[in-house]
Amino acid sequence: MANDKNYWTQKRPDGRWESKREGGERASKVSDTQAEAWAYSKSKAKEGGGEAFLKGRNNEIRERNTYGKDPYPPKG
Question: What's the pLDDT at 53?
Answer without folding.
Answer: 97
